[in-house]
């Protein structure tokens, strides 16, 4: 069964950091570009922050550039999202998804995890 499982979410104070993980089972993440999306209650989905499956290049939306870093550990079949300088507006469910190519188009992401919740609050 092909599966993506996110972890690492939680409650963090403003200014703090979190590192989210996206682990794959049933397939090799190295063969896919991975995108991180987020969706806050009552808001549209945002993203992705994504990393390629070829040269490790990454793409970030301007709204998160400088605070979000996507990386991958192919030996662990896992992709990470490091989030620094967290703000209350970063509160959302964070989802990873796999695509055949590095893309900003949501419809090209084939496999999706169920998400991990991040809450930024004092």
Describe the protein in words:
- The chain has 122 residues and is mostly beta strands.
- It is built from no helices and 11 strands.
- The chain has strands at residues 3-7, 10-12, 18-25, 33-39, 46-51, 58-59, 68-73, 78-83, 92-99, 109-112, 116-120.
- Strands 2, 4, 5, 6, 9, 10 and 11 form a 7-stranded mixed beta sheet that branches. Strands 1-3-8-7 form a 4-stranded antiparallel beta sheet, with no helix packed on it.
- Strand 7 (68-73) and strand 8 form a beta hairpin.
- The radius of gyration is 13 Å and the shape is globular.
- The termini are far apart.
Short description:
The chain has 122 residues and is an all-beta fold. It is built from no helices and 11 strands.
| SSE class | mainly beta
| Total count of strands | 11
Q: How many helices?
A: 0
Shape: globular
Largest sheet properties: 7 strands, mixed
Distance from first to last alpha carbon: 39 Å
Order of helices and strands: EEEEEEEEEEE
Q: Strand percentage, roughly?
A: over 45%
């Amino acid at each position: 069964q092909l599966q993506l499982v996110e972890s690492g979410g939680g409650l963090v104070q403003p200014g703090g950091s979190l590192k989210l993980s996206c682990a794959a089972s049933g397939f090799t993440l190295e063969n896919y570009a991975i995108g991180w999306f987020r969706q806050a209650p009552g808001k549209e989905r945002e993203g992705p922050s994504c990393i390629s499956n070829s040269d490790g290049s990454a793409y970030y939306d301007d709204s998160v550039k400088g605070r979000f870093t996507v990386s991958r550990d192919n030996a662990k079949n896992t992709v990470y999202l490091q989030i620094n300088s967290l703000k209350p507006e970063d509160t959302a469910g964070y989802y990873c998804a796999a695509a055949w190519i590095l893309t900003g188009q949501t419809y090209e992401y084939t496999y999706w995890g169920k998400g991990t919740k991040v809450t930024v609050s004092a």
